[in-house]
Amino acid sequence: MDKQEATRTCGQCHKEVAEVNFALHETHCTRFLVPCPDCQEMVHKEHLDTHREEQHTLVKCSKCHQKMERCQLLDHESDECEQRLQTCQFCDLELPVKDLQDHDVVCGSRTELCMECGRYVTLRLRPGHASTCPGVHNGSGPPESTGKLTPNKVSCSRCWASFPVEVIEEHKRGCVSSMTLLDDEDEEVDIEDEDQLEEEEHNGLDVSELGATIYEAPHFLSSRPSRYPGVEEGKKEDPDQISCCPHCHLALPFPTLRWHQVKCEIHAVLK
């Protein structure tokens, strides 16, 4: 095995040179090479000015306008510049690095609906959600919305009560007939009551003597409320006075309250 060749370090370029060639190398190095005053790199005397211009001239970064030597520009633009663009991991939008952190906090807090389990998951947790999603592991889809009726029930457009699909048509016929008859009855009673009140007042009779005969009328739910709730018996009602419905507590003028109260009672029973 050949012995390792002996080497010496050149005092000019600081390179390891074979000892047998050291004298020739040192002579050549001293004659033609000089250290760059900016980076101390050994450069050929004829190329020193070109080297300094290409490597050490001051330039500005086109994004942040910071000054630096030309040899540092590439590293600065790729790794250090605060204005360099990077892509948001959540929305793929390109933003300057200095704004990206604040953007990620907001953007990563947005939620998206998981089509497997029906839950809303933040974008930041979405990668890990796939491994814990109950919809993926159980093979079940998103749950049905609780705000809607189940498929086998529908609402009556008249009274808004819920009924099975099989009986909704029968209910609608009865619901419409009942409401129509009640409306006709209300109109007839209102006309008769008004005519009777005018006649009695014209004859000088006290309205209170009529009692429940005028104000009461039978219907299929319960006894009919007084014509104008809140009016003391024997006193003439004031059409501008307002009272509350005992069922929904809606404040209405007396002429409107009577028929509203009957319909409100029907709606409450049908719920």
UniProtKB/TrEMBL annotation:
PROSITE patterns: ZF_TRAF (PS50145)
TRAF-type zinc finger segments: 25-101
Residue stretches making up the TRAF-type domain: 25-101
GO molecular function list: zinc ion binding
Pfam families named among the record's database cross-references: TRAFD1-XIAF1_ZnF
Lineage top rank: taxon: Eukaryota
Record bears the keyword Metal-binding: yes
GO cellular component, one term: mitochondrion
Keywords, in A-Z order: Metal-binding, Zinc, Zinc-finger
Cited InterPro entries: Innate_Immune_Apopt_Reg (IPR051986), TRAFD1-XIAF1_Znf (IPR049439), XAF1_C_sf (IPR031220), Znf_RING/FYVE/PHD (IPR013083), Znf_TRAF (IPR001293)
PANTHER family, alphabetized: TRAF-TYPE ZINC FINGER PROTEIN-RELATED, XIAP-ASSOCIATED FACTOR 1
Protein name: TRAF-type domain-containing protein
